[in-house]
Structures are given as C-alpha cells and as structure tokens.
Specification:
Low-confidence stretches: 2-6, 9-63, 143-151
Distance between the termini: 82 Å
Number of helices: 7
Radius of gyration: 28 Å
Structural class: alpha+beta
Shape: globular
Length: 257
C-alpha cells in the first residue's frame, strides 16, 4: 500500500515538473524563432537598400524607365575615340556589341550634346573621358561660381561636396549636412525645393523638369528618392550618380561616401 502511494506521489511530481518546465521550453523555442526571424528581416532589409557597389545601378524594382545601364556604358566606352578637335565619336565597330538600338541611340545623343559643348568652348573632354565644364573666360567652373566641379571637404569625417562630369553623366557628392538637407527635403513631399536646388546646381536642367525626371524613374517618387538617400547615408554623406547628360540625366545610383 505504501509502495502504491509512493509510486503515485512520484507520478504526481513528474507530471507537475512537466507542467512547470513545458512553458519555459515553449518560451525558449519561441524566442529562438523570433531571433531567427529578426535576423532574416534585418538581412532582407539590408539587401533591399540601394545597391552600394559604385559601378552598378540600384535594385531594378526601384526603377521604371532607365534606358542605359552602367554595364552598357562600360562596353561602349571601349569604342570611344577622342578626336583631334576635342570631340568624341564611337568607332563604327561598336555595332557588333549585343546592345539594343534604343540604348546606342540614347548614347549617341549624349555624345552629340557633349560635342556641342566642346565646339562652343563650354567643355573640355579629357583623355580618360572625364569632362571639365568651362566658364566664359575658359577657366574651370568651381563651387564658388555656382558650378562645383572643384571638390571641397567639409568638416573632418563629414564627406566631400562637389561633382565629377563624365561622357556618360555625373557623380554628385554631398557632405553629411547637404545629405541631411536632401533626404529631409525629398521626404517632406511637395516640390522638394531645397533638395532639387542642391542637385540642379550641377545638372543644367530647370528644377521642375528635374523633379519630374526623378519622380518618373524612382519607385515612390521624390519621397522614395529621399528614403534611398537616407538609407545610404552612413554619416559621411552620399554620392548620387546620374546617367545621361543635360536633359537626358536620370538618377541611377545612390551610394555612401
């Protein structure tokens, strides 16, 4: 009789132990799953940011109508020729490349635009196909005269401010303070006046036209563009790449400095 009572007590203790331990085990598993899910979310969120590899465009789902990729630019650059009069031409053999007619037509328009600037003595094309935009007196336009071809550095660690021009488009550099102004302006909606003004210092396009171009290319419009800039800002400013020259320029990359 005592043995039965003893066995019954042992069974009761075991059941009670299972009841007490099970919630702890269940909570432990749930916490583990949550950690994995959070990790997956973090990785996915990081991957969905604008691509930060300098020679690649942003994720394709963030664009609507970008005609020319940087891969196309690289292929065609191998066929560029700098002529004695300072203009550019594409060697006819570029036609063997597997690039669509619409892309090469667009690139030919860029070259035509650039050659027009050269003939008017408003630009000089260097041997590496970078471009210097000139003032009326033949000097290189700088930040001080509202066309910041010359780089300047803000406070230490804040990044550079300025731009580079190439035969295929622009690299715009904004220091940490300008970057903050950019994404706050774009994310606020409306006309993003201050943000557009910073970009149009370099790209010779009316602000309203520039705003329309950005809205037409970036998923989410101006607000989406502002979010991209904020996502890529790591405290040292950003570089924004525009592919195409003049009115043909469209944003194709946002990268941290």
């Amino acid at each position: 009789m005592k043995e039965k009572k003893h066995n019954g007590f042992k069974t009761f203790v075991m059941v009670l132990t299972l009841i007490l331990v099970s919630p702890v085990f269940s909570i432990s598993v749930s916490a583990s799953e949550l950690t994995d899910n959070e990790k997956l979310h973090t990785e996915t969120t990081g991957a969905s940011k604008g691509n930060s590899v300098p020679d690649q465009k942003l994720n394709s789902e963030e664009f609507k109508t970008v005609k020319v990729s940087m891969n196309d630019v690289k292929k065609l650059e191998a066929y560029l020729k700098l002529n004695a009069d300072g203009t550019l031409t594409l060697d006819p053999s570029y036609t063997k490349l597997d690039i669509s007619r619409s892309v090469t037509n667009e690139v030919q328009e860029w070259i035509k635009y650039l050659n027009g600037l050269v003939k008017q003595k408003e630009a000089v094309i260097n041997s590496d196909f970078s471009v210097k935009i000139l003032d009326k007196d033949g000097s290189v336009l700088t930040l001080e005269n509202e066309n910041n071809n010359k780089m300047k550095v803000a406070k230490k660690g804040c990044g550079r401010s300025g731009h580079d021009v190439y035969w295929w488009g622009y690299n715009l550099y904004f220091d940490c303070n300008e970057t903050r102004t950019l994404y706050q302006s774009f994310k606020a909606g409306g006309g993003a006046t201050s943000g557009i003004a910073l970009i149009s210092r370099v790209i010779p396009v009316p602000p309203t036209q520039l705003a329309s171009v950005i809205s037409g290319v970036i998923g989410g419009g101006l607000v989406g563009f502002g979010q991209m800039i904020q996502d890529e800002h790591e405290g040292h400013g950003v570089r924004i790449r525009f592919t195409g020259l003049g009115y043909a320029a469209v944003p194709t990359g946002v990268f941290p400095q």
